[in-house]
Design goal:
13% strand; Rossmann fold; alpha/beta; THF_DH/CycHdrlase_NAD-bd_dom; 373 residues; photorespiration; Aminoacid_DH-like_N_sf; three-stranded parallel sheet; one-carbon metabolism; oxidoreductase; disordered N terminus; globular
Length: 373
């Protein structure tokens, strides 16, 4: 399929951004998800969490001292952990999306279109893009791929972004990260149209996610996937201590913001955190997105913790088909002995993340068609 390239490039200037922010609620359209309008509203409330006021209960002046009971029975043996099957959950979501893509085509005579920009030849990035394109094909979403060499200029990438921004047949744009070091990643991501930012990395989408009472157009896919896994397994979040390991804009930051929307008490652990294992050991929920294989050991976790492992770290393996295998941030064999629920790698967060990308792309297509009516 031939790609139509526009002329020139550009990104929102600071005055434009400040003007958008100053307009208040007009800048934060309601997030949409797959389904009818009522269903979309319910899904948005579910993923963004209940809007509860911060009302502090007065603490008692003194606490009763517990009376020791020498006859108290021993606690029961811990139950086997739940292995959170991301593949199964992703299959359910993708089946739902596939049905709505058919309905979308019937209603509007169009199909959703996702444009992917891939720069360079990193093996992991190529693998991820291949998975995303296959997933699009499986549910009936059209995908376009602009593949640029590692040596290309930043302007070349911005030119691709701008041409997709200007193409009305394209509903979602994804710039595969990471970009080469000689490029300004923030500048390129900010150039993606707010209404096509299906990765959710546009400054206004991130800003609206951070502000209670406002809704971003799109939520970053990996963060949304983490919440989907927790909510679908009925993990209680309100008041729970959640530790997020890693603070990247792709996973750590938006995940911590979403957890706060659900009224969890959130701690962020990063490379400069002192005694990270002690902080992590206090958590009811651990979400690791550090990008370091086997960083989180069993000794970092308290019994009964829920572990969401976002890490996908390639480890050389000559016996593997591609010469490497993926492992998570969490040492699975140790963590599974103490966790009450845990995601495997692969087969945990990854498939659901791709499903969230498909959902965001369909939402973008529906919003574009509604706006044009």
């Amino acid at each position: 399929m031939a790609l139509r390239w526009g002329r020139g490039w550009g990104s929102a200037s600071a005055p434009v951004l400040f003007s958008l922010l100053a307009r208040g609620r007009r800048c934060h359209p309601t997030i949409t998800t797959v389904g009818s309008s009522k269903e979309e509203e319910e899904d948005a409330r579910a993923i963004l969490g209940p809007d509860l006021p911060d009302i502090w209960s007065p603490l008692p002046t003194s606490l009763p001292r517990p009376i020791p009971n020498p006859m108290r029975p021993l606690p029961p043996a811990p139950a086997p952990p739940t292995i959170i099957d991301g593949k199964s959950i992703a299959h359910q979501i993708r089946s739902h999306i596939s049905t709505h893509v058919i309905n979308f085509k019937t209603s509007y005579g169009k199909v959703p279109v996702l444009a992917v920009i891939l720069v360079g030849h990193r093996r992991d990035s190529q693998t991820y893009v291949r998975y995303k394109i296959k997933a699009c094909n499986d549910v009936g979403i059209t995908s376009l791929l602009a593949q640029l060499p590692h040596s290309c200029s930043e302007d070349d990438v911005l030119h691709s972004v701008t041409s997709f921004n200007q193409d009305p047949s394209v509903h979602g744009i994804l710039v595969q990260l990471p970009l080469p070091q000689h490029m300004d990643e923030e500048r390129i991501l900010a150039a993606v149209s707010l209404h096509k930012d299906v990765d959710g990395f546009h400054p206004l989408n991130v800003g609206n996610l951070a502000l209670r009472g406002r809704r971003p157009l799109f939520i970053p896919c990996a963060a949304k996937a983490c919440l989907q896994l927790l909510l679908r397994h009925q993990i209680d979040l309100v008041g729970k201590h959640a530790v997020v390991i890693g603070r990247s804009k792709v996973v750590g930051l938006p995940t911590s913001l979403l957890l706060q929307r659900h009224h969890a008490t959130v701690s962020i652990v990063h490379a400069f955190t002192h005694r990270p294992e002690e902080i992590t050991r206090e958590a009811d929920i651990v979400i690791s997105a550090a990008g370091v294989a086997n960083l989180v050991r069993g000794s970092w976790l308290k019994r009964g913790v829920v572990v969401i492992d976002v890490g996908t770290n390639p480890i050389e393996d000559p016996d593997s088909e591609h010469g490497y295998r993926l492992t998570g941030d969490v040492h699975f064999d140790e963590a599974v002995k103490v966790a009450s629920a845990i995601t495997p790698v692969p087969g945990g967060v990854g498939p659901v993340t791709i499903a969230m990308l498909l959902s965001n792309t369909l939402d973008a297509a529906k919003e574009a068609c509604r706006s044009s009516v």
